[in-house]
Design brief:
Length: 119
Amino acid sequence: MTTVPTLKTVSKSVKSLVEGALADTKGLLRLAPCWVPRSFLQPGKRLKLHPEDLYAYGLNRGGIDERWFASTTPAANENRTPDEGLSYVTVGKQCFTLLQAVSECGEMVIGERIWNKYK
C-alpha cells in the first residue's frame, strides 16, 4: 500500500509538478487524507476509521477526531509534527504540501479572479 510517508517529499520548486498534475488531471490535484488527532477528545468513530487506526499517532497524541480537506493551515496541537494539519498533494511517487503548491502557483491553483482579490 502506498502511503504519504513512503512517497518522496519535495520541499522546493514544485511548480513543474503542479503544472504537470493539473495538465494530466484536467485541473485537479490529488490530495492525500489529512487526519488530525486531538489529545483532549476521544475519537467518536464517526470518521469510520478502522478501530486500530483511532490512535494511529499513539495514546499520548490523542485520538484521530478530524479529517481536514484541502488544508493550508497547520494544526495548533501540542507535540505536533511540523506538517500536522497540512494537506499533501500526491503526484506519482512524490508529494508536497498544498501550502507549497499555493505559495508557488497560487493563481494557477486557486484561479485568477480569487487569487487577485484575496491572495
